[in-house]
Amino acid sequence: MGTIGATLLRAGRRFVSSLPALFGVLVFTFLLMRVLPGDPAVFFASGPNAGKEEIEVIRRQLGLDKPLPNQLAIYLYDVGRGNLGRSMMTGQAVAKDLKERLPASLELTLTALLIALVTAVPLGVLAALRPGSLVDHGVRLFCSLGVCVPTFVSGLLLIYVFYYLLGFAPDPTGRIDIFATLPPSRTGFLIIDFLLAGDLDGWWAAARQLMLPALTMALFVIAPLARITRASMLVSLGSDFVRTARSVGLSWWRIVVTYALRNAILPVITIAGIVFSTMLGANVLVEKVFSWPGVASYALDALLVSDYAPVQGFVLLMATIFVIVNLLVDVLYGIADPRATVA
Amino acid sequence: MIGSESTQPLLEVENLKVTFSTRRGLVEAVRGVSLSLQPGEMLGLVGESGSGKSVTGFAITHLLDRAGHITEGLIRFKGQDITRAGGADLRSLHGAAMAMIFQNPRAALNPIRTVGQQIADAILAHRRLSRAEAQAEALSLLKAVQIRDPERRMGAYPHELSGGMCQRVMIAVAISCNPSLLIADEPTTGLDVTTQKVVMDLLARIAADRGMATILITHDLGLAARYCARVVVMEQGRLVEEAEPLTLFHRPQHPYTRRLVAASPTATSRIEDLVPDGERIPLVAVTELPPPHGTPLLLDVKAVSKRFDDGTVGVADFSMTMRGGESVGLVGESGSGKSTTSRMICRLIDASAGEILFDGQSIGQIPARDFHRSELRRDIQIVFQDPNDSLNPRYTAFDCIAHPLLRLMNMRSGDKLRQRVEECADRVGLPRELLSRFPHQLSGGQKARVGIARAIACKPRLLVLDEPTAALDVSVQAVVLQLLNKLRREDNLAFLFVSHDLNVVRMMCDRTIVLRTGVIVEQGESRALFANPQTDYTRELVDAVPHIAPAPA
Question: What is the nearest CA distance from B114 to chain A, expressed in angstroms?
Fold first, then answer.
């Protein structure tokens, strides 16, 4: 298939051209961490009254006594070998920490994005079908509320209503009840692992645990997605080809979905990519509120104690994910719009 | 036709009124139109922009935008009142009974669906067939509209097809369920003359073969005359005249029709004939002095070619010369390289090879990016095709005209600048009170005048006109052409006139160059060239222009 080949080729080219940017991110975060105030050696010395020599020893152990270019070279060499350093905070390799925590963040973010898309696209379409109607205004109000309320407030509100008042939701701490037996970790995504293990009760518990934080995240991003869907649908519905579709008497469903929405979805894909990347980093608030063991809260904790390696590893991870998401958006674009492969 | 009186008309429209609710209140676009159409008849609906001709078409097919409403009148189709039809009635009407062909064929097709699927969609909307049967039917329709290699084209997307091809696909979509009424809204506007002829011939044949009645909505009187048995002229939402084409052209009754007929360029018309006596600009008699001996040619283009980055050749080995005050036409179909050539000459893009001499000085070597700093920039000015897009929407008419004076003549804001701008406005017939307006507050003709005033502000010696009247109504075009002609004579300006409209070029230009795929096919004195073309290609071009038959002697 020519179009798929062309799309893959384009995606590959884009990936290669994003490598310098990744390298830039690497160097930039490294320098930024060194410029920020705070000395990790002091933090990790045995106590507040540790002597100068003790701090000096730790500093030497950490390699902080070497000149900056040397430190950078060592760091780059290590990263090249897949070694992101060791976290002072957890005492584990950063790569291992991130690997353990990334699925939690991805599971939360992807679920939230899915909820947001499933809600936002129909809302946007409904609003666009009758601009200026009660439905349109209702959607606008809902979206405004979604963005206006900070995630930690809406998170707490949801906990108050669904956990405290109604009791639908489980105890909002972590991914799963600490006493529950975990399924063998295959993907790291609990709801998938439970399914693979055939443990439906466990799956239900994990899904219930996931619902509130995911809803909180979703509420926040429904607004941009719904608004862009509406705007894009309005353009699409007013276009010449929809008029043509009407002129030959196609059914309502075919006009709205096959003709208008399929064309209108392109900008939504772009925005969804951006939203996803933003959510991954920005859901630190939600992770904190729900004690979710994700990468963002991990990075924040590390930053607070001047633990360089986890923060650098986190930023690198985010940059990589951003690149991958953009590639994915590119590929989706190529599939959704035959013109994209030509340009 | 004998016995045609007894048959019931296919379509009757009585006193139709359509209003649009806009931000500035209600606007009546159609103010009482009545017409009737017999089965199989082809009716021309002619008028300029804003005449309500398209709105009438959309009202009949119930495709008006949300803002438009039929306020009064009656539309009867096959004896049934369909004025207020809706829902299921409308769906069975659309496509199955009446279909439409639209102006911009590429935009009218779904960009992300293959043309085969789109035709099949239209078939499946009204007939119970399997997807495969519908696809087979779609293929035979593609064959019917004479698309070459139809099996392969079934899987093509609209952007992979030319404008003419897209319009054929659109015709296939429209006729897929054998409607008895076809409304074609400017079906060939924006297509090349030769493509226009092929598409219109095809449309006329299909309509005749299948016995479809057709309403051809167009601004082009010549086109309507060539294909329609009866022509209706609309002005400001009203019908002003209805007649057979020959009668209409040779004995127009209504003053508006008379103006329209006069303004439509024909194979024999002169610039002076285009507008009625009262509005004719008196031409200054110019006695052309032969240039003193030794004067270099104004423009000498030597073997210029343009190869684009992707390797395609836009123009190959193009040479031409121009004397001061001469006007040369550059004609050709889209893709012939005429715009590329004109842009190289006015130094907006760089040539890949060759030399351009202006007034004896080589300008081809100056990169297009830096040419605005050259002394010669003010000598070569351009009038662009689209008067809307070529004016900065945030600049008033005054700013637009003053801009080149500030940039190229180093003038400063002040009385002198104001004086010069007003002088330019006067010369192009733009009322001074309009100078403070923004482009969106001006009409198409006024915007064209601003564009011309801007181009002549620096007193250039060569004016490159890239389809300057393509976006204008014929009556406005007539006035603008006359104005350009006057300016040329007064200032001894040289014109390089790029156009696809052969009649306009013949009137405006001393010499004409015919381009095809970047190569000069033929050149010579305009009248002789068009009267007696030497190459097949030029003959094809000339024949494709819809002419109004000369008056019977």
Answer: 9
